[in-house]
Specification:
Elements (H helix, E strand, L loop, with lengths): L5 H18 L5 H10 L8 H26 L8 H20 L7 H21 L2 H19 L2 H20 L9 H20 L8 H19 L1 H11 L13 H22 L2 H21 L5 H23 L16 H15 L28
Helix pairs in contact: 1-2, 3-5, 4-5, 5-6, 6-7, 7-8, 7-9, 8-9, 9-11, 9-12, 11-12
C-alpha cells in the first residue's frame, strides 16, 4: 500500500531523532554525521525550502492544466468535468513518479498529492452536485493519500471529509434533527481521538506520527467547537432559524455555557497531569476564546477594566507559578528543556547588556596643572 520503502522512511525518522539528540547534547557532531551518512533515506528538505518547492509544484500543475485546457478545451464543451478528471489523473501520476524517485517531504510531491485530491473532488462536485458525496470522496481519497504517500495534510483533509459527510447528512438530508448537531460533533471528536489513541499505541504506525498528532489536534479542536456557545448559537440562527430576542436564549443554553468553560479546563488539567503540551496549549487557547465568547454577547464591565483585571490575574498566576516551579527538577518545572536552543537566550541577554553599557570614551580630567612652574618650579612661565 505504501509508495515508499518502509526502511527509508524509518531511517528519515531516525536521522531527525539523531538531530534532536545532538541539540540536546546527548551525541556528538561526529556521531550525528555518522548516522546521516550511513543510513539511506528519502529526498526531503527543510520547511522553508519545502514551501518554495511546493509553490513551484503548484505552478507546474497549473501550467500542465493550462496546456491541456488550451489543447482540448474546444473538444470538451458540454462535459468539461472530464478535463478536470484528467487533471486529477495527471496529479496522481505525478505523485507516483515522485514517490518512485524517492521524493518525500520535498515540496514537489506535496503539491501533486494535494492537487490531485482537490481536482478530483471538484470534478465529483460538478458531476454529482452534492456536497455529501464530495465530503465522502474527500474522506476516502485523503485517507488513501495519507496511507500511501505518508502525507500529513491528507490526514487533516480526511478528518474534514468525515465530519463534513455527517454534518451534511444532518443539514441537507435531515436524517435527524439539527438540534443534535453539536452532540454529533462531540461524538465524532471522541471517535477520532479514540482512533488516534489506538493507532498511536501501535509501534508499527510510528512513521505516521506527524499525521496522528494532527488528527489529535483536530479532534480536540472539534470537540470544543462543537459545544462552544458562540458556535452553537450562530449555527442555530442560520440552520434552525432560531431568533434570540432579549430575555431569551437558545435551547439548552445552560449546558453550552458550562461546556464552553468545562472542556478547556479539562484540556488544561489533562495537559498538566500527563505533561502533554498539545492538551495544555489547546486548553489555554480555547479558555481564552471562551472568555471572548461570553463577552461577545454579555458585557459585565468596560473593556479597559476587563483587560486590566485580566492582566493583573495573569501576572499573579505567572508570578506564583514561577516561584513554585523554579527550583523543581522533575515533572512540571520552570527549567528550560534540553532540546531548546539556549544560545538564543544567551545571545539576547548579551545584546541587552551591551546595549546598556556606554561606549563613550572616558576623558580623564586631572586637576594637576603642568607647565608654567606651578608644580614646585617644574616648568618655566611666561615671565622672567
Amino acid at each position: 500500500m505504501q509508495a515508499y520503502s518502509k526502511e527509508k522512511l524509518e531511517n528519515g525518522l531516525l536521522i531527525n531523532e539523531a538531530k534532536r539528540l545532538f541539540k540536546m547534547k546527548f551525541i556528538s557532531k561526529e556521531q550525528l554525521n555518522g548516522v546521516i551518512y550511513e543510513l539511506p533515506k528519502l529526498q526531503s528538505s527543510n520547511i522553508f525550502i519545502r514551501f518554495g518547492f511546493f509553490l513551484l509544484g503548484l505552478f507546474l500543475c497549473s501550467s500542465v492544466a493550462g496546456f491541456l485546457a488550451l489543447l482540448f478545451g474546444n473538444l470538451v464543451t458540454t462535459h468539461y468535468e472530464v478535463l478536470i478528471y484528467l487533471y486529477a489523473m495527471i496529479g496522481l501520476v505525478g505523485s507516483e513518479v515522485f514517490a518512485k524517485n524517492l521524493y518525500h517531504g520535498h515540496g514537489l510531491d506535496d503539491a501533486f498529492v494535494l492537487a490531485w485530491q482537490a481536482t478530483f473532488c471538484i470534478a465529483i462536485g460538478i458531476s454529482f452536485e452534492s456536497s455529501t458525496v464530495v465530503y465522502a470522496v474527500l474522506f476516502v481519497i485523503a485517507l488513501f493519500s495519507c496511507i500511501r504517500y505518508v502525507n500529513t495534510i491528507s490526514a487533516l483533509l480526511s478528518c474534514i471529509g468525515l465530519v463534513g459527510f455527517f454534518f451534511t447528512l444532518i443539514t441537507d438530508y435531515k436524517i435527524i434533527s439539527t438540534i443534535f448537531l453539536p452532540f454529533i460533533g462531540l461524538t465524532l471528536a471522541i471517535f477520532i481521538y479514540a482512533f488516534y489513541k489506538r493507532m498511536h499505541l501501535k509501534s508499527n504506525y510510528f512513521i505516521y506520527d506527524n499525521a496522528l498528532q494532527l488528527i489529535k489536534i483536530f479532534s480536540l479542536v472539534l470537540g470544543y467547537a462543537s459545544v462552544n456557545y458562540m458556535v452553537v448559537r450562530e449555527l442555530s440562527e442560520s440552520l434552525m432559524g432560531v431568533v434570540v430576542t432579549k430575555g431569551h436564549d437558545i435551547p439548552l443554553a445552560f449546558l453550552f455555557y458550562g461546556l464552553t468553560f468545562l472542556i478547556p479546563l479539562m484540556y488544561i488539567y489533562f495537559g498538566l497531569q500527563r505533561k502533554d503540551r498539545i492538551f495544555l496549549t489547546i486548553g489555554l487557547l480555547t479558555l481564552g476564546y471562551s472568555f471572548f465568547t461570553i463577552r461577545f454577547y454579555y458585557s459585565l464591565m468596560p473593556l479597559e477594566t476587563a483587560l486590566v483585571l485580566a492582566g493583573l490575574l495573569l501576572f499573579a498566576i505567572s508570578f506564583f507559578s514561577i516561584k513554585k516551579l523554579q527550583n523543581k527538577e522533575t515533572g512540571i518545572t520552570f527549567k528550560p528543556d534540553r532540546d531548546s536552543n539556549s544560545n538564543l537566550l544567551l545571545n539576547a541577554q548579551a545584546l541587552i547588556i551591551n546595549s546598556q553599557i556606554s561606549t563613550k570614551p572616558v576623558i580623564n580630567e586631572s586637576k594637576m596643572p603642568f607647565g608654567g612652574g606651578g608644580f614646585s618650579g617644574g616648568g618655566s612661565g611666561e615671565s622672567f
